[in-house]
């Protein structure tokens, strides 16, 4: 094997290893409770003095309250990430509560930094995710109370309430700050906006349809 071939092989192997283990870094101390007052730009958030850490730094109240689903989607996400619990900093986990009105949808979105494991607490949900190109296979299932489903990191996924009443789910995510990219909002609602020509060609739409979608997002 020529040297440059070997080097390319090593680089490809390393990039696959990084992909396979993509998640938040392991902590190097018991905890690193985030201190939002420290103005340092770093990966994660700076720690406050461990001597001043208290139980409330690891706690959040209010997840018994349902989110307000009076919106066009009929769903509401209540996040419990490092921004709600500073003690989650460096720990690589977080949580959301999702409420769904009758027929409500949590629209297609991805989490750039986390896999997700969702438990249905009330009602019935159709859930699904789509594998990456070129296959784009949709993997879907109807879940009922107590059922659990996994959305792998980075893949586009959604949930729809298919039951006769409200639905509630709790989902855990493998990042202190999973991030969310809602496809429709990112594409048709970016600031500054994407030019019409890009959107017309990408989605095979005419100018009127692009204008309509931009006005919605
Ligand atoms: C829920 O959201 C709607 C629309 O924004 C608002 O009109 C309504 O007052 C909210 N309800 C509650 C209980 O906050």
UniProtKB/TrEMBL annotation:
<feature type="binding site">
    <location>
        <position position="157"/>
    </location>
    <ligand>
        <name>Mn(2+)</name>
    </ligand>
</feature>
<feature type="disulfide bond">
    <location>
        <begin position="32"/>
        <end position="47"/>
    </location>
</feature>
<keyword id="KW-0479">Metal-binding</keyword>
<keyword id="KW-0325">Glycoprotein</keyword>
<comment type="function">
    <text>May play a role in plant defense. Probably has no oxalate oxidase activity even if the active site is conserved.</text>
</comment>
<protein>
    <recommendedName>
        <fullName>Germin-like protein</fullName>
    </recommendedName>
</protein>
<dbReference type="InterPro" id="IPR014710">
    <property type="entry name" value="RmlC-like_jellyroll"/>
</dbReference>
<dbReference type="InterPro" id="IPR006045">
    <property type="entry name" value="Cupin_1"/>
</dbReference>
<dbReference type="InterPro" id="IPR001929">
    <property type="entry name" value="Germin"/>
</dbReference>
<feature type="binding site">
    <location>
        <position position="111"/>
    </location>
    <ligand>
        <name>Mn(2+)</name>
    </ligand>
</feature>
<dbReference type="InterPro" id="IPR011051">
    <property type="entry name" value="RmlC_Cupin_sf"/>
</dbReference>
<feature type="binding site">
    <location>
        <position position="111"/>
    </location>
    <ligand>
        <name>oxalate</name>
    </ligand>
</feature>
<feature type="binding site">
    <location>
        <position position="116"/>
    </location>
    <ligand>
        <name>oxalate</name>
    </ligand>
</feature>
<dbReference type="GO" id="GO:0048046">
    <property type="term" value="C:apoplast"/>
</dbReference>
<feature type="binding site">
    <location>
        <position position="116"/>
    </location>
    <ligand>
        <name>Mn(2+)</name>
    </ligand>
</feature>
<keyword id="KW-0052">Apoplast</keyword>
<feature type="binding site">
    <location>
        <position position="106"/>
    </location>
    <ligand>
        <name>oxalate</name>
    </ligand>
</feature>
<feature type="signal peptide">
    <location>
        <begin position="1"/>
        <end position="22"/>
    </location>
</feature>
<dbReference type="Pfam" id="PF00190">
    <property type="entry name" value="Cupin_1"/>
</dbReference>
<keyword id="KW-0964">Secreted</keyword>
<dbReference type="InterPro" id="IPR019780">
    <property type="entry name" value="Germin_Mn-BS"/>
</dbReference>
<keyword id="KW-0732">Signal</keyword>
<comment type="similarity">
    <text>Belongs to the germin family.</text>
</comment>
<feature type="domain" description="Cupin type-1">
    <location>
        <begin position="61"/>
        <end position="211"/>
    </location>
</feature>
<keyword id="KW-1015">Disulfide bond</keyword>
<keyword id="KW-0464">Manganese</keyword>
<feature type="binding site">
    <location>
        <position position="109"/>
    </location>
    <ligand>
        <name>Mn(2+)</name>
    </ligand>
</feature>
<dbReference type="GO" id="GO:0030145">
    <property type="term" value="F:manganese ion binding"/>
</dbReference>
């Amino acid at each position: 094997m020529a040297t440059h071939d070997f080097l390319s092989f090593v680089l490809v192997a390393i990039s696959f290893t990084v992909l396979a283990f993509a998640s938040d870094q392991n902590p190097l101390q018991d905890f690193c409770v985030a201190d939002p007052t420290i103005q340092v730009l770093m990966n994660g958030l700076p720690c406050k003095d461990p001597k001043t850490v208290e139980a409330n730094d690891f706690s959040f109240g209010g997840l018994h309250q349902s989110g307000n689903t009076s919106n066009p989607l009929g769903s509401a996400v209540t996040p419990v990430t490092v921004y709600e619990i500073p003690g989650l900093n460096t720990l690589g986990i977080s949580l959301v509560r999702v409420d769904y009105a009758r027929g409500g949808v949590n629209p297609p979105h991805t989490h750039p930094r986390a896999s997700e494991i969702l438990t249905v607490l009330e009602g019935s949900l159709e859930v699904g995710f789509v594998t990456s190109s070129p296959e784009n296979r949709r993997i879907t299932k109807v879940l009922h109370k107590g059922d659990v489903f996994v959305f792998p990191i980075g893949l586009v996924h959604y949930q729809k309430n298919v039951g006769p009443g409200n639905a509630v789910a709790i989902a855990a995510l493998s990042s202190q700050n999973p991030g969310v990219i809602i496809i429709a909002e990112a594409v048709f609602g970016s600031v500054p906006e994407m030019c019409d020509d890009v959107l017309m060609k990408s989605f095979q739409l005419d100018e009127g349809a692009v204008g309509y979608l931009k006005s919605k997002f």
